[in-house]
Amino acid sequence: MSEERILIIAVKNEGEHEERFLSSLDELVSLSKTAGGTVKSVITQNRSRIHPATYIGEGKIKEIKEEIDALEIDLVISNDELSPGQLRNLGNRFEVRIIDRSQLILDIFAQRARTKEGKLQVELAQLEYLLPRLQGQGIAMSRLGAGIGTRGPGETKLETDRRHIKNKIHDIKQKLKLVVRTREQYRKRRKVNEVFQIAVVGYTNAGKSTLFNRLTASNTLEENKLFATLDPLTRKLQLDSGFQALITDTVGFLQELPTSLIASFRSTLEEVSAANLLLHVVDGSHEDQVQQQNTVLKLLEDLDAQQIPVLTIYNKKDLLKETVIPMNHPYLIISANDEDDVKRVLLKIEELLKELWESYAVELDPDKGKLLSKLERETIITDKKFDEARNKYVIQGYVRKEHPINYLIK
C-alpha cells in the first residue's frame, strides 16, 4: 500500500511558547511517519483562541482546501484534539478524512500492541475516544476500512450504533479486569517474595529498550520509531555483587497522551508505581530533552510514583552536539550501545542502592548455606570471607531497611 499523503494543521494560541509549539509540530510529523504516512504540508494559524465550530478561521479553511486539492492529500491531521462538531464541520469542508493527534497516537498503539492485554487496552481507548465522535465522522465513515487512524480492532464496528459500541466497551472492561487481576497477583507475589523491582521509564524513543536489552541480554523490539515498545516486558537483572532484581521495560511517555489511553493503560503503568527504583532514560541529544524530562516527571506524579528513587540516564552521548547539563541528579551520560557504559549503569545502580540502604555485618556458621545464598541474591555483599580459626563466614554488605532478612542478620 502506498504511503498516505498527509497535511498537518495546527493553531498556535496566544501565550503559547514558540519552542513548545514547534516541538509539538515536529513530534506530530514523527508520529505521522511512524504511522506510515508522508507529511506533504504543515499549515499553522495564530489565533487568540481556537474556533469552537471549525478549530481554525474561515480564511485558513479555504487555503487548506486548495492545498488538499493541489497536493492530492489523503488525510488531514490536527495538532489538537478536535470536538465532534469540529471534526464534522472540517470533514464536510475538506472532503477528505480528518483525524487529530490523539487518534493518530491510538492508531500507532493499535499497530504496536502485541499481547492480548495491549490489544484490549488499545481497543478500549479507541472505542471510548470514538464514541462521542461517531456523528462527526461523516465522509471518513463512508470511506472507512484502510489508512491511518482507522486501524485497530475497533475499525469495522464503528459504523454500527452506539449501543453496540457501549456493549463492546463493557465486554472489554470485563476482560481487562481479569488480566489486571492476574497482573496484580504477579505483583503481590513479587512483593511477598521481596523481589527488588526496577522500571525503565522515559520519553518515547529515548533508547529505553536498547538499554533494557543490553542490561538483560534479551531481544525486545528496538527501533528508531516512536512507541516501539508497548507491552511491558520483565526480565531478571544481576549486579556484579550477585544481587538480583527484576527490571521492566515500559511504554514510552509523550506530551499530551490521550486521557483515554492513560486510563486504559493504567494497569501497565502501575508497573512503574510498584517499582523500588526507576531508571529514567533521556535522549540527551534531543533539542527538547528538558521538555521531555518534565513530561515524564509530570506523568510519574500522575501515577503517584514521584517518591520512588530515580537514576536519570542521559543516553545517545555519541550523538551529542553540545554538553548535557543534567537537570536531574543522580545521573549518568552514556551510549546504550557501548558495553563499558552499560557496565557503568550497573555499577551506578549498585552505588545508589548502597547510599539508600543500611550497612550490615554478620557472622554465619558454615551450615547456613541457604541464608548465605539469600544474602547474595537479595542484599549487596561488599566483603565475604571465611574465618577458619572461628569456623565462620564473615559478611559485610548493604540491605534494604524494610527487608525481612534484617531479622535474621541482626
From TrEMBL:
Checking SUPFAM superfamilies in the record gives: P-loop containing nucleoside triphosphate hydrolases
The Swiss-Prot or TrEMBL record lists the needed cofactor(s) as: Mg(2+)
Ligand binding (Mg(2+)): 209, 229
Q: Which InterPro entries match?
A: G_HFLX_dom, GTP-bd, GTP-bd_M, GTPase_HflX, GTPase_HflX_N, GTPase_HflX_N_sf, P-loop_NTPase
Q: Where does GTP bind?
A: 202-209, 227-231, 249-252, 315-318
Which of UniProt's keywords are assigned here?
A: Cytoplasm, GTP-binding, Magnesium, Metal-binding, Nucleotide-binding
Major location category of this protein? cytoplasm
Q: Which residues form the Hflx-type G domain?
A: 196-357
Query: Which residue spans traverse the membrane?
Result: none
Query: Which Gene Ontology cellular-component terms appear in the entry?
Result: cytoplasm
Localization, per the record, is: Cytoplasm
Annotated GO MF terms? GTP binding; GTPase activity; metal ion binding; ribosome binding
Q: Which family does it belong to?
A: Belongs to the TRAFAC class OBG-HflX-like GTPase superfamily. HflX GTPase family.
Instruction: Give the record's subunit note.
Output: Monomer. Associates with the 50S ribosomal subunit.
- Function (record text): GTPase that associates with the 50S ribosomal subunit and may have a role during protein synthesis or ribosome biogenesis.
Q: What is the name attached to this protein's record?
A: GTPase HflX
